[in-house]
Amino acid sequence: MLKISFFAKVPDKKLLEIMQWYANDIAILKSIDSNINIATTFKEISIRSDLYFSWFVTGSIFPLVIAKLRRKPIIVVAGGSEVVQTVPMISGYHAKSVLEKMAIQFVLKHADRIVTVSEELKKEVRFFGIDHCETIYHGIRTDIFKPEKSDKKIIFTISHLDKFNVERKRIKTIIRAIPLVIHDFPNQQFVIAGVRGDAFQELQELVIELKVERNIQFPGRISNQDKLDYFRKSKIYVQPTIHEAFGVAIAEAMSCGIPVITSKNTAVPEVVADCGIYIDPDDPIELAKQIKLLLSETQLRNTLGEKGRLRIVSHFSFEKRKAKITSLIQQVS
Fold first, then answer.
1. How many other C-beta atoms can be found within 10 angstroms of the C-beta atom of residue 41?
2. 3-state class of 162 per DSSP?
3. So where are the chain's domains?
4. Which has the closest alpha carbon to 268: 235, 321, 316, 328?
5. Is 154-315 assigned to CATH 2.40.40.10?
6. Other CB atoms within 10 Å distance of the CB of residue 143
7. N- to C-terminal Cα distance for the chain?
8. pLDDT 10s digits, 223-259
9. Is the full-model pTM beyond 0.85?
10. CA dist 252 to 168, 184, 257, 323, Å?
11. Torsion-angle region of residue 208: left (phi > 0), alpha (psi -120 to 50) or beta?
């Protein structure tokens, strides 16, 4: 049996369950090696594995060194902004230290295969002169993230509330749209879930300034089950982002049959296509207008929700990613 080592540099192993992209790939790899080595630190990486599979480029320097010393193949997933050079609004690669940039370039060059989660991200990897990469989209658990009959009440968003992600996902645009929405829908509730990072205080101050405390909740970090429960309560999912390597939460909302309002930036159109509503991420007036449209038009909400669900099932299912990851492992082993 092929012995596999999975690596992700995270501060808490619980994140391997909370972050769906880690959990999905671990499940895929376990179908090949039930005794897979799961490591989050250099010391935990097995020196007896036949293949190494690592998430995110910068941290992958650790398993790559072991793989190369042992002359074993390594697959690295480029799934974030660390390889982004060509999007002016995202610092990405350019914000890294000299040592981090060296690590990124070394990993991209020497990994046996680079997996990107979108064609948009593949363009960024190829900007480094790398050709041994291929796109394997994220896989959504459509058997879990599925439409449910429930009392739809909220407008939902999920994002880490640190400065980088609040800026990237334009959370302030959402908050600034709320007074315009509640002018016509005074009882409408917004929920913005996610770890309360270094931007949370600033968001609270904006909420108070706009006097919308009664209409917004910040539940903080939520479990996968909590996230699913929030999706089931959602009328609309909102994410007016300026950059996505893929857009997992957008795809999960679509899989649940929820209409999405987002922005036509980077990888988002690859996922959403014509199954959502696009807005300027810096225009709260336009965002409020589209939210009110969906709140008023039940048929439009239902149509977009149904189209979104069908798109995720046909293009971005967990089974599709599993088949392609399994095939890739067979090629490099």
1. 12
2. coil
3. 4-139+317-332, 154-315
4. 316
5. no
6. 11
7. 12
8. 999 999 999 999 999 999 999 999 999 999 999 999 9
9. yes
10. 19, 28, 9, 20
11. alpha
